């Protein structure tokens, strides 16, 4: 039986991506091979509980909500994550996956909406971007840039244009709270006429940075 290491399963309002605002069950897988300087989920790097996919499905079902977001940590660092994603789709859930863009996404069930980061230079992890992943993205998916500086913004803008990202799927630009002023990012996007969606993390406005929300 396929096993998963899981930090938490909780019911909240989706705070990110174009699914923002939807009541959602979150499954947070433990562990991540990256160390983004601004990561807000360091508590998921270690620990967690090992449970099988079947038990995970039962715990998800108990929330009575048909929208699920699989996140982490880095969910794709556990091979059984692919089994969980397919099992959720088979059970009729609307499923999204939050992933760093550093691991191979080609095995992800095509019914899953992949929300894939491209890590900007000031994350400290941009060397990990797996550019081959872009070929696996469809209009169901989204690319996300999380930004802390003007240098990050200029890099994201250049990448958007050079890789033709907006022709492939929706693109999200999000500031890190207390590092890049949201208004500044909004002004840059408008000035440069970027075809992207500006994003704030709704759950932090609602509940600050509480684990399990
Ligand atoms: C915690 S990560 C887990 C999934 C995967 N490891 C990843 O990086 O996409 C989920 C999302 O939160 C974003 N994130 C993490 N810390 C953040 C912060 N301080 N401000 C804004 N977004 C953040 C990540 O960029 C990613 O899009
Ligand atoms: N409410 C809420 N929405 C989220 N969307 C993505 C999250 C994540 O940590 O991946 C997240 C999270 O941690 N909480
Ligand atoms: S890849 Fe995701 S979980 Fe890992 S350090 Fe970066 S933001 Fe945090
Ligand atoms: Mg989060």
TrEMBL record:
What this protein catalyses is: 6-carboxy-5,6,7,8-tetrahydropterin + H(+) = 7-carboxy-7-carbaguanine + NH4(+)
- What Pfam families has UniProt attached to this entry? Radical_SAM
User: Which residues belong to any copy of the Radical SAM core domain?
Assistant: 19-209
Q: How is the cofactor bound?
A: Binds 1 [4Fe-4S] cluster. The cluster is coordinated with 3 cysteines and an exchangeable S-adenosyl-L-methionine.
Which superkingdom?
A: Bacteria
Residues annotated for [4Fe-4S] cluster binding in this entry = 32, 36, 39
| The UniProt record lists the keyword Lyase | yes
**Residues annotated to bind substrate:** 13-15, 28, 71
Q: Which residues bind Mg(2+)?
A: 41
Q: In which pathway does it act?
A: Purine metabolism; 7-cyano-7-deazaguanine biosynthesis
The cofactor required is: [4Fe-4S] cluster; S-adenosyl-L-methionine; Mg(2+)
For biological process, the GO terms are: tRNA queuosine(34) biosynthetic process
Keywords from the UniProt entry: 4Fe-4S, Iron, Iron-sulfur, Lyase, Magnesium, Metal-binding, Queuosine biosynthesis, S-adenosyl-L-methionine
UniProt GO MF annotations = 4 iron, 4 sulfur cluster binding; carbon-nitrogen lyase activity; magnesium ion binding; S-adenosyl-L-methionine binding
Identify which top EC class this enzyme belongs to: lyase
Q: What is its EC number?
A: 4.3.99.3
In this chain, S-adenosyl-L-methionine is annotated as bound at 38-40, 73
- Similarity field: Belongs to the radical SAM superfamily. 7-carboxy-7-deazaguanine synthase family.
PANTHER family (alphabetical) = 7-CARBOXY-7-DEAZAGUANINE SYNTHASE (PTHR42836:SF1)
Q: How does it assemble?
A: Homodimer.
Annotated function: Catalyzes the complex heterocyclic radical-mediated conversion of 6-carboxy-5,6,7,8-tetrahydropterin (CPH4) to 7-carboxy-7-deazaguanine (CDG), a step common to the biosynthetic pathways of all 7-deazapurine-containing compounds.
Q: What is this protein called?
A: 7-carboxy-7-deazaguanine synthase
- Source species: Georgfuchsia toluolica
